[in-house]
Amino acid sequence: MQYHLMATMAAGLEALTARELQDLGYQTRTENGKVYFDGDDTAIATANVWLRTADRIKIIVGQFKATTFDELFEAVRALPWDDYLPLDAAFPVAGRSVRSTLHSEPDVQAITKKAIVDKLAGVYHRRGRLPETGATYPLEVSILKDVATLTIDTTGPSLFKRGYRIAKGEAPLKENFAAALVMLTNWRPDLPFYDPTTGSGTIAIEAALIGHHLAPGLNRAFAFEQFGFMQTVLPAVKDAALDAADFDAELDILGADINQEMIDIANVNAKQAGLLHSVRFKQLAVKDWRPSSDHGVIVANPPYGKRLGELDAARKLYREMGQVYRPLTGWSKYILTADLGFEKAYGAPATKRRKLYNGTLRTDYFQYWATQHPHHQHGGNQ
Fold this sequence. Notes:
10 helices; 14 strands
C-alpha cells in the first residue's frame, strides 16, 4: 500500500528533514513544520528509524475543507477508516485547531471520534460502542485555516526519544535538536569535534551517531509495530541500518563541562548508546581547553543566562569563549544562545546567524566559519 506521509519537526528544521528524506530516496514537499512524502510500509519504518531531526511520521488519511460541524462529520465519515482500523482498534483522537472557524478543539475532537465510530460500526455491522480493546492507533484531527487533516501517528513517543538518555541535566537539549545543530555545521567525521558545555552529552553523542552513520532509531520501538494493516518490516529495516553503519570510523569527539557531575551523566548516556569508545568526556573549563589539532568544529549550547542574575555569568563565559576561540582560524565555531548580546561579549560578529526554536524559546545559532581550511586528499566540502 502507498501512503501520503508527513514528517513533523521544529520550526526552522524543515530543510534539514527534507534533505534527510531526499537522501533516503524520497521526493519531498515542505510546509511550515512539515515535510510531505509518499511511500509504503518500508518507507514508514525507514523514516522512523533514520530521521535525525524530525519529531514524528504520520500517515495522512484525508484532507478537506470544513467550516461547519456537519461538513466535518460527513467528510471524516467518508474516509476509508476500515482500511486502517480493525474492529477492536483503540483510537484516541487528538484535536487541534488554528485560525479556523471550528475553533473549539474538544468539539472538533468529539465529532471526529463520533464520525469514525459511525463509519466503523456500519462497516463491521456493530451497534453502539466499539470495544477498543485491541492495538492503539493514535489519530489526530488538525484544522489549519479551515482545512482539516486527519492523520495516524506511526511513531509513538517522539523521535527525539532515542532511548540512550537515561540521565538528564537540568536543561537538556532534545536529541533531534542536538542532531540538527551538528548537521548545520561543516563537520565531517575526519575532523575533531568539540562541545565545551556538554551537559548530559547529547550534542557529542549525536555527533558520534552521525560519524558512525548509525541510525538514531535503532534501539527503540514505534507505534506502527502494532498496526494490523502494516506488514512486519521493522526487523529488515533495522538490519539494513546496521549493515550501513561504519563502526570502524575513527572519531575525535570531545565533550567537556566544568561540572564533574555532568561528565558522569554524559558517560552513562554514551555507554547506553554504545558509544563510549567514540566520545570522550572530560571535566574542563572553557578557558582551559587547548586544541590538539589546527582544524576542527566547535558546537556549544552554553547557558543563556535566562534567569535573574545569571546573565553576567553567561556573558563572562561568552567572553572566555571569544578569547580562546577567536585565534583558532582553522576551527569553525557554532554557538547557540537566546542572548542577542552574544557577539558583543564574544568580541566578534558572527559569519552567519540562524534563527532556531529550542522548544518555544527563540534562539540564534551564531556561526564563526574557519578562514583556513585543511587540505584533504579526498577533497572536502567546506
